[in-house]
């Protein structure tokens, strides 16, 4: 990171030289210089990016700071291919050209370090919670009910009515801090709270407009809550949920809690979340310490307004953070005796695994490995003595509870639902489990390997890739929402297609060869696929691509697509392929490979689940099997 910072400073120091070179290379001022600068910057970036891993540490909060860099790439790939080519003449000697190219390479590498996918969220729950000192919940022991096991459930502050019934969880959102202009940004330059204990100056991307607020409260948050309420049921309280005043000893003290929540309580709620729009990255926190057999009921969350540019992605990010508050976190799993640890290297490096009955069963089914010990949790490089609150990215990259929610993925899988069921406070509706192709049926050889190796791409080509610096093509990410390059997530040697900041199939500012961009677009793989790129010459330039974005329509178990240059819909059955060159002049040759139905139809463009709700689906209560 320090190297990246030095490169950025170098960029801004030498940027006037770049502009000077642009002036001396063109005879027409204004737009021509912009075309020159943006075009060669993009080429320099292309040269540099295979040697870096820019997206691995991306977080949603960082996006707006570098939006300008992304905008730089909205230009033709090289200035020789623009419609203004005839006005460009070379006038500088070789020495100046060499210096310019050096600076461009420096610039490209700098941007390579900063190029962040506009749809990548690195969860900060563990980083924040490890610094927190949480109060214990006020526990009220339930009276044993007829037919129940020997374990007992506790609730924070209120006792569940003995006549209470299992029903979808009711999550109440308190929006006091979204109604108080002193708590969110209205103008650039204001100081507003981060809700982490300090203030920060407002930037343009921090401003909470009335439209953004409405989008958040009317669409995004309700959709995220529905992802949980469609899948998780609790024994509902007939009494109001009383919030303990002791939460003032936690991070939640930075959020506004109405006085009546401490006294008369919150009616018709099984959990309450205090929400805000701070001037920092998005995060969620638990307000009370994890206790055995105590269902978490109080949490807080601050949103990043910039993330609302992609509401379909924001829904999954918020659902991810809500899951932590509802109990999907290391401390709660440890309290419920769901965890074990195993050695994963000769250096006694440890990895936490969830070994509770149902989670292990669903993991065995997904990976097709009977000897699987449990579902692996993330292990942190350099922090191996502390377990973490996410599934290991190698095993569950596209799961809702993976370390990084990327692109539009975040599948609410049966494995994640099983973890909730194993806690004992939830019944889960497995008919609403979303299928994840990552790791599906890979077998015990993958599971027992425990760590990535350079040859993974040979054995698991649908998951991993081989870094080839001579291959400049962009390929589809595993969740099929973006195009990207082969890169590693960290220092773990796991190489897979990482999304790039200008590669989204749904961002209209993206410029992708042969792609049809739109809110319902997905990325499909190409087979010997080549596209025609319009240039000034009489014959178009033919460019080889690894994948393209197409619009997708999901029928009843059928997928139809339409691609660039053709407005007709074409049926695209699983395992089949389409020859777009037959109907579109934008394609030269090759095929678009048809996807699996669940890959592009499980999550809707709005971020909601594409599965039809089944109220009476298979419900599982694991209270009798808990350790």
Description:
25% of the residues lie in helices and 20% in strands. The chain is of the alpha+beta class and 627 residues long. The protein has four domains: 2-116, no CATH class; 121-327, Elastase, domain 1, CATH 3.10.170; 337-448 and 612-620, Leishmanolysin, domain 2 (Alpha-Beta Complex), CATH 3.90.132; 461-601, Leishmanolysin, domain 4. The strands form eight sheets. Strands 21, 22, 23, 24, 25, 26 and 27 form a seven-stranded antiparallel β-sheet that branches. The protein has a four-stranded antiparallel β-sheet with strand order 4-8-17-28, covered by helices on one side. Strands 5-9-11-10 form a four-stranded mixed β-sheet. It is globular. It starts with a helix and ends in a 7-residue tail after the last strand.
The whole-number mean of residue pLDDT values reads 76
Terminal-residue CA separation: 43 Å
CATH architectural type of the largest domain: Roll
Count of discrete alpha- or pi-helical segments spanning 4 or more residues: 15
Low-confidence stretches: 1-117, 139-163, 623-627
Number of strands: 28
Helical residue percent band: 25-40%
CATH topology of the largest domain: Elastase, domain 1
Tally of separate domains: 4
Characterize the overall form: globular
Biggest sheet architecture: 7 strands, antiparallel
What kind of assembly state do the chains in view correspond to?
Answer: single chain
Cα radius of gyration in angstroms: 26 Å
Q: What is the beta-strand fraction?
A: 15-25%
Structural class call reads: alpha+beta
CATH class of the largest domain equals Alpha Beta
């Amino acid at each position: 990171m320090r190297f990246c910072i030095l490169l950025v400073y170098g960029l801004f120091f030498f940027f006037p030289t770049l502009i000077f070179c642009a002036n001396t290379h063109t005879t027409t001022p204004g737009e021509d210089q912009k075309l020159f600068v943006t075009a060669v910057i993009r080429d320099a970036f292309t040269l540099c990016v295979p040697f870096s891993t820019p997206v691995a540490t991306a977080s949603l909060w960082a996006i707006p700071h570098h939006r300008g860099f992304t905008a730089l790439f909205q230009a033709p790939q090289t200035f020789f291919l623009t419609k203004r080519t005839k006005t460009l003449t070379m006038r500088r000697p070789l020495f100046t050209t060499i210096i310019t190219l050096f600076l461009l390479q420096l610039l490209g590498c700098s941007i390579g370090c900063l190029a962040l996918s506009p749809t990548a969220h690195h969860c900060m729950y563990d980083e924040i919670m490890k610094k927190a000192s949480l109060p214990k919940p006020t526990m009220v022991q339930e009276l044993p009910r007829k037919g129940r096991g020997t374990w007992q459930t506790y609730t924070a502050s209120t006792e569940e009515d003995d006549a209470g019934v299992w029903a979808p969880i009711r999550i109440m959102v308190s929006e006091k801090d979204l109604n108080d202009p002193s708590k969110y940004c209205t103008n650039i330059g204001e100081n507003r709270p981060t809700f982490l204990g300090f203030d920060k100056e407002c930037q343009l991307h921090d401003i909470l407009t009335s439209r953004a607020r409405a989008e958040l409260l009317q669409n995004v948050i309700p959709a995220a809550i529905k992802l949980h309420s469609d899948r998780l049921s609790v024994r509902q309280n007939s009494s109001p949920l009383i919030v303990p005043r002791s939460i003032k000893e936690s991070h939640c003290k930075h959020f506004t809690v109405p006085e009546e929540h401490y006294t008369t309580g919150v009616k018709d709620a099984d959990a309450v979340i205090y929400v805000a729009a701070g001037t920092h990255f998005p995060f969620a926190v638990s307000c009370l310490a994890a206790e055995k057999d105590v269902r978490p009921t109080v949490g807080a969350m601050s949103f990043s307004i910039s993330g609302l540019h992609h509401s379909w992605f924001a829904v999954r990010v918020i659902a991810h953070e809500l899951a932590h508050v509802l109990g999907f976190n290391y401390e709660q799993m440890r309290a419920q005796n769901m965890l074990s640890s195993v050695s994963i290297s000769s250096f006694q490096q440890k990895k936490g695994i969830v070994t509770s009955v149902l989670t292990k069963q669903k993991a065995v089914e997904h990976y097709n490995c009977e000897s699987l010990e449990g579902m692996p949790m993330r292990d942190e490089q350099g922090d191996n003595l502390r377990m973490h609150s996410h599934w290991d990215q190698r095993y569950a990259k596209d799961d809702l509870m993976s370390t990084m929610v990327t692109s539009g993925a975040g599948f609410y899988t049966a494995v994640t639902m099983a973890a909730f069921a194993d806690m004992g406070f939830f019944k889960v509706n497995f008919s609403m489990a979303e299928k994840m192709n990552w790791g599906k049926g890979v077998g015990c050889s993958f599971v027992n390997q425990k760590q990535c190796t350079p040859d993974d791409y040979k054995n698991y080509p649908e998951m991993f890739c081989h870094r080839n610096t001579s291959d400049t093509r962009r390929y589809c990410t595993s969740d099929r929402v973006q195009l990207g390059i082969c890169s590693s997530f960290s220092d773990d040697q796991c190489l897979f297609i990482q999304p790039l900041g200008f590669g989204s199939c749904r961002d209209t500012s993206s410029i992708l060869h042969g792609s049809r961009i739109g809110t319902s677009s997905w990325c499909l793989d190409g087979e010997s696929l080549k596209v025609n790129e319009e240039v000034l010459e009489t014959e178009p330039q033919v460019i080889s691509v690894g994948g393209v974005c197409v619009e997708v329509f999901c029928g009843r178990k059928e997928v139809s697509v339409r691609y660039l240059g053709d407005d007709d819909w074409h049926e695209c059955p699983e395992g089949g392929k389409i020859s777009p060159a037959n109907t579109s002049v934008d394609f030269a040759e090759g095929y678009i490979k048809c996807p699996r139905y669940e890959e592009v139809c499980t999550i809707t463009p709005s971020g909601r689940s594409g599965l039809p709700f089944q109220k009476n689906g298979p419900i599982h209560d694991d209270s009798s099997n808990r350790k």
